[in-house]
Structures are given as structure tokens and as C-alpha cells.
Amino acid sequence: MAQNADTHVVAPEMAVSFFRSILPFNRLDDATLHDISRHCRVDFYPKGTRILSAGETEIPHLYLIQQGGVKAFIEDDQGEITLKDFRGEGDYIGALGIIRGTLANLNIETVEDTFCFLLPREIFLNLVEQQASFAHYYLKSFSEKVVSTAYNELRYHKVSRRSGDDLYLFSVRVGDLVKKLRKVASDSSIQEAAVAMAEYRVGSLLVYDPEDEENIVGIVTDRDLRGKVVAAGLDYQLPVETIMSGPVQTVLSQALCFDVLLKMMTTSIHHLAVERGGKIIGVVTSHDIMLLQGHSPYYLFKEIRGQQEISGLYILAQRIPEVIRGLIKEGAKAGNITQMIAILNDHILERMLILLEEELGPPPVAYCWLLLGSEGRREQTFKTDQDNAILYADPESEKQKKKVDAYFKILAAKAIDHLVKCGYPLCPGEIMATNPKWCQPLSVWKSYFSTWISAPDPVELLNATIFFDFRSGFGDAGLSRELRKHLKAQAQQKDIFLFHLARQCMSTRIPLSFFRNFIVNRDGEHKNHLDIKYQGLTPFVNFARILALKYGISETNTLARLKALFDAEFINRELWASANDAYELQMQQRLIHQLSQMEEGRAPDNHINPEQLTDLEKRTLKDAFAVIERLYSVLDKMYPVA
Amino acid sequence: MINLLNPGSWFGNPSPLLQANKECFVDFDQDRPLGEYTFVVCDTELTGLNKNKDELISIGAVTIRDLQIDLSSMFHRFIRPMNMDPTQATLVHRITPEQLETAEPLCEVLPGFVEYIHGSLLVGHHLPLDMHFLNKATRAVMGGPLSNPGVDTMRMAQGYKRVRLGHYHEHNPRTTSYALDDLGKEYRLPEFKPHDALEDALQTAYLFLYFIKKFRKGGLVTLKDIFQSGRVGSFRY
User: Fold this and answer.
1) Of the candidate ranges A179-193, A573-587, B101-115, B222-236, the one whose mean pLDDT is the lowest
2) How far is B77 from chain A (nearest CA, A)?
3) Which pLDDT tens digit goes with each residue over B187-208?
4) What pLDDT does A556 receive?
5) In the Cβ-directed half-sphere of A463, how many Cα atoms lie within 13 Å?
6) Which residues are CB-neighbours of A226 under 8 A, at least 6 positions away?
7) Which of A35, A394, A594, B55 could form a disulfide with B81 if both were Cys (CB 3.0 to 4.6 A apart)?
8) Same domain flag for A471 and A505
9) DSSP A315-340
10) What is chain A's mean pLDDT, rounded?
């Protein structure tokens, strides 16, 4: 048929916009997309049509599903069918066969009425040759480009821009911020006041009337010491009332921080006394309020370390998510973010236990506060349950033992209570230092691990897995190292328990694919949510733990374990790189999912609705599932069922 | 083709293009498998619906070969009407007055279209209306009507519904719409944004492909089967 010249120039908008919406075509420029569209055909396959047959069908073109869905499966000699994949809108069929120049390697059948764009194989092969992104995409390698695009997409589309970054100012009342009242009598010397300020690590002291301690007559600040004393050469022995400002300006404890900040800005007074029920309860400074806004991890870190009272840690701990949010927005990756969360949590714990020791007196024997599970692996996201324990040095006598028991019982009870107030919920399984079973001397801990390892009861072993990820959170790390040494020596001798761990790990079913707004399992079962922790992350954690135990690697962090396994050549570079990327990307997805839940005022969970995932996210998750399959096959070879 | 531009030839014998096209259908065999026919799905836009007065202002068409829509050869042209208030076009159609003012006249566009549909079956949604204006135009410009057999997707839809619902089930005609968009929704075809004659032709092509493959799955394998089953078309319009 003769064709008029301008019959060529038109490209149907419908086809172009389809290509513009799917990976990896969306990276192509418009002219190329128009050209591609003009070379396609459109075909329709009613539900139940076999499009390709494995080992039989030549693949003349790449099929791109515009609408509908197909299943991919293989069939063995006995007619046994194994489902391999479901593919829906925007997915492709036949790429691998075209690239490798082979016949179809899977059976493809429509499960719905399906419209496909057919892209001629020569054009497709040209794209694969000329565009690196095409080769990466269709050869299913976890390319850096796809990964970094995925991170960007997560960042820009899922982390909302919140205009009111100063929201705290409107929700926190100044009474929540107030520091413990520190005061001196007005007849104390300037030097005595300076000594008290240094000791309490504060920038101001209230000054009271020696006749009536309740009567606050003024305030003395760092600035007064600098300006009125040191710079002016004033005698340090003069009474402090000579340099104080008085009477003090006060605010009510229920005032909003915003209003207080306004008052400070208008009066240029940066230290205000806070009044509750007609009584001065402490001081609030502009610095305290500015810190509320600060998202800088360093400020938070400094604040935690400088905290003199345990109750002051409560509000600091609540600010961790805000700091983390800032980090995510700045583009930090999950591996770094979880490290930061661990550091901040560790400092909260450390500060709390130091202050608690001051309160209770020094411990009768050395002890180590153990962190277990995700805390032990430094993989916490936002507020996750407490998993902790106490490991202490074996007491030397029966008498000491009683003292030790009593001390740690109180320490644990108080510490756990403070942690709850900091926002770390109790562990429903009671794996906490308050449980006498998990507050034990080194010898008992060693025997626990020996039992789990040498005579494994599979159920008990499953419950014990989080203990294998222990690390020292505070205290005498030597005790924790001693225990790790014991575990290492035992684990490498007793393969049977690793066998159990491996078989348990592999019993977690891996999702197969996404189809529409469902997640499809290997048996074709559909679910409308993905448990990203249980189905997505746990298999990587389990794999890394088993191999780390097998090869005596002390690391507890999953990414660090994988790296150590690669460095020691227990896994190859390719597997390490894929597992590392797949794991970290899923952690990122989980973090962002939880962050957005928290911003909507909901409790964070691990249930991801496929409806809310972009194509790229689905694609990277699907690739991650494929990596899990490879991890399982490594374990399967290592620990075959007899 | 040159003599077409000569108004003297307009009222004589049909043009050679029309003749050649006509010869394709002299011994037209309806018993071949569906995949062996070439279909051209077309849509026209008009100045209005008055069969005597109104004129074609655009033609969009896509070809279906091997029962697949071939996006590599499509036809889309605007036509400068003889009598028309150009401002009116923007109200009724998605065509700007500038597009019409710079468009070629009918006598230049039509031979290209006849060439494009040479030997193909025509498909359209409510095809008789398009055929009326196309035949009127070819008579005026090329000395005769088109000889291409046609298939009306609206009639296919009626036939398809009859088959699916069975002859004994009366369905309420008031709840049944045969508009292109409504059928697309009913059968969950890909969505099209109202755009132009070409996109409309493409949407019709999707609908045609849907029906023809559904019919074929139901055992209707030749063109004759299709014609007879739902009386979905006729040999001549």
C-alpha cells in the first residue's frame, strides 16, 4: 500500500503516554518515544489465551502489557505446573528470550482480557544495545542506577514536605521543657555561684532570699559572670546579689513555647523563670526552645550527653524521629540512618544508666546491659519494642549474690520504666532485664547458649534467635565479649543447631510478585499487604546470622555481617552486592513507610499496601524477593534435608 | 491522480483509484480466516450532522493487519471545508480554526485516503454515518462511491450482547448504551482521552479487536461467520 508522507508523522498519544509511564522507557526522550510508538502493533488476547509456550514459541516482539494480566509458569513432563510470576499493566513478556536469542523459556497465559503493545525485536535489541538502562533493567541486575533512582523516588514522593517544621513551638508547653530548679542564696559569694553553675552544667541560677528559700529575688547568668565580674575585675567574694538581675521575669508553666519565645525576643531576656501554682519551678532559656526545632543529630546528641536528669531524657528521646526524618530528607540511606538511630538510642540508654547508678550507688559487680534483636543488630527503625537483658560478673560469695540480685532487680525495674517513658514500649515476650531469667551472671548466660546450641529444641531455638544478635549497650563490654567468645566456640562445633536455624529460615515463604494491588505468593495466593519485616527483611537477617555463626563472625549488624562474609570470601561479590542493595532498599522503604505513618499520627507498623507503591518500588521489591530465593538456595546446599 | 485536480473530470467516470479499489471486491471471498483480511478502522469529524449540508473536516484511520493494530501506518488529515464558520469548529470539535484554515481541501485529501484504504474492509463505530459523508465526498471529488465492504462495531456490540445474554433474555435497552466510551468502560478496555479523529479511530480499533477475538474464541473464524452471526455489517453501505 502506498503511504502518504504524513501518515508517518502521527504517533498516537495513547501509546506515547503508555511508554512514558513505564520503566525503563520513561528515561527516553520524547522523540525516541514517538518513534518507538510508531513501530508498535497492538494486540488483544482474551482471557485464557496462551501467548507463549516454553521451548516452542519464537518471540518476534517484546510484549508490553497495556491492560490485563498474564501468568508465567512452567510445566514438567508429568504436567505438574509451577507458577513463576504474575505480570500486569506495564510489565513485559519475552525480553530474556529476545536478548538471548532463544525460544520462550516460560509458558505465558492471560488471566484476564489483555491488550499488549508489541515492540519489534530488532527495535528492542537496539535499545538494549544502546541504552545501558535497558540492559540493566531487562537482565534483572540490581543496577546502581535503578537503585539510586529508587532512592530518589522514595525520597521525593514519600517524604512529604511539611511546612510547619516549627510545629513543636505550638504543641509543647514550657512546663515540659523546664530544667530542675537550681538556686543560690543571695548572700553566697560570686565564686560559690560560679562553682554551682559549673557543677550543675547550667547557664543560670536563680537567687533566693536567705530568709525565705521560696522567695526568688533574682537570676544570675553566665553572661553576668563574664560581663559584670571577669571583664570588670570584680571581687569574686562579693555576694552574688551584687551582679544578679531582679526581680526575675516569669512565665506560666502552661504557656506555649511559641509565646515564650516571643516574650524572649521582645524583651531580650533569654532566661525566664517558670511558675506553676504560684511557685517558681525552674528556668527556661531561649536555647532550650531553639533546640526543640533543631533537627541536627549533633545537637540532640549533645543534649543527651549533657542531660543531668533522667526525666530530661524523655523529651529528648521523643525527638529522635524528627532528627531521623531530617536525615531521610537529606538523602541518607537506611544503613546510615539505622546506625544513627542506634547511636542516639545508645546514648539515651547510657545517660540514663549513668544517672541511675548515681542514684542507686555503684553496682556491686561489673555488669553489661545487653541489647538484643534489632537493637543488638543496630537495625531499629522508629520506636520498636525493648529487647534487653543484664549480664553481670559472677558473684564471689553467696552473700554478694544476694546483694547483686537485689541491686540489679531495682536497677532493671527503674531502667525499664524510664525507657518506657522515653517511648520504647515494653517487650510483649518479656525479653527484658526485668525478667529474672534474663538478668543473670556470665556463667548462667554461657549455659543458656550451650543449651540452645548443643541440644536444640526447634521451638525454643526460634524464640532464642534474637539472643544470638546480642551486643553490649552499656557497662563492661568485656563481659559481652567473653560471652561472644563462648558462643563462637560452641556454634562452630555444633552444626545441628545451624541446620535447624537454616531450615527455619527457609520455611518463611518468599513472595513471588506483585499483581495489581496484590502481593502474590508462590502458590498463587493473593494478599493485599506485604509484611516488609517478616517477608522482606527477616530472611536476610536470618541468612546473615546463620552464616556469621557458622564462620565465627562477631558482627551483629546484618549489612556488616554480609560484608564480613564477603571479605572472608564465604560469599561471592555478586551475591553480597545484590543482598546488600536489596536489604538496604527494603529497610529504606520500611523507614519511610513508618515515618509517613507517624506523620499521619498512626502507630508505625510493617504492613505495606501494594497500592501505594510506585512501579519502581514494586520492581525493586520483586528483585529483592529474587535475591532471597538465591540466599535460600545457598542455605539449602549448605544444610540439605537428608 | 493529476486529472483529479481538474474539475472537468469530477463528473465523468469514477477515478482510476476508485476503479482499482472496486476491482479488489469484485470476487470478494468472505470465507477466508479473519486474520487474512486487512481492516481500516476510521473515524470522521463533521461540521454538523445534517446529511445534506454538512461536510467532512477530518479523517482519522488505523490499519489492522493480522488482527493487530499497526501503529506504523496511520492516516490523519484535516480538511478545509467549503462552507463553514471556522469559529464554530472549536465548539463542536477538538480542532482549532487555524488547523482548518491551513488544511488542504477535500479534493487533495480524499485520494490519499482512498489509496490508504485500498483493498481493505472498513470498520467504524456507527459506520453508516461516516460512509454517507465519505461516499458523498468521493462522488463529488472522484466520481463515484467507495466499494469497500464495512463492519460496524456498534452492530458488533449488539451481536456480542445477544450472544452473551442469549436470545431469550430481554435486556433493558434503556440501561444499555452503545456509545463508544460506554462500551469501552463496559468491556474494561484501555481508557482514551477524547482527542481527535485518529484517537477515536484507535479507540474503535480496540473495540473491534476485542469483539473479533472474542467472536473468534467462540468459534467464528471467517468473515462470513462474523457477518452472519450478529448481522454486524453488510456487504455495501
Assistant:
1) B222-236
2) 9
3) 989 988 776 889 899 999 999 9
4) 94
5) 8
6) none
7) B55
8) no
9) HHHHTHHHHHHHHHHTT--HHHHHHH
10) 86
pLDDT classification of A416: cutoffs 50, 70, 90: very high
Listed by number, the residues of chain A in 39-68 with a beta carbon closer than 8 Å to a beta carbon of chain B are 39-46, 49, 66-67
Predicted confidence (pLDDT) at residue A4 exceeds the cutoff of 50: no
CB contact under 8 A, B116 and A39: no
pLDDT score for A220: 93
Whether the CB of B213 is below 8 Å from some CB of chain A: the reply is: yes
Higher pLDDT, A194 or B219: A194
Q: Contact at 8 Å (CB) between A446 and A483?
A: yes
Nearest to A15 among B71, B73, B76 (CB): B71
Q: Is residue A461 part of a domain?
A: no
Number of domains in chain A: 4
Task: Assess whether A205 and A284 both reside in one domain.
Answer: yes
Q: What is the pTM of this model?
A: 0.64
Instruction: Read off the amino acid at residue A342.
Output: A
Any chain A CB within 8 A of the CB of B231?
A: no
CB pair distance less than 8 Å for B199 and A44 = no
Residue B210 contacts A, CB cutoff 8 Å: yes
Q: What is the predicted pLDDT for the residue at A640?
A: 87
Q: How far is B71 from chain A (nearest CA, A)?
A: 5
Measured in angstroms, the CA of B206 and the nearest CA of chain A are apart by 8
Q: How far is B73 from chain A (nearest CA, A)?
A: 6
Contact A540, A583 (CB under 8 A): yes
Domain assignment of residue A79, given as a range: 5-139
Q: Which residues contact A48 (CB under 8 A, 6 or more apart)?
A: A109, A110, A111
ipTM: 0.86
Selected residue of B58, B63, B69 to mutate for chain A interface (largest A Cβ count, 10 A) = B69
Average model confidence (pLDDT) across chain B: 83
- CATH label of the domain that carries residue A343: 3.30.460.10
CATH 3.30.420.10 is the classification of domain B2-232: yes
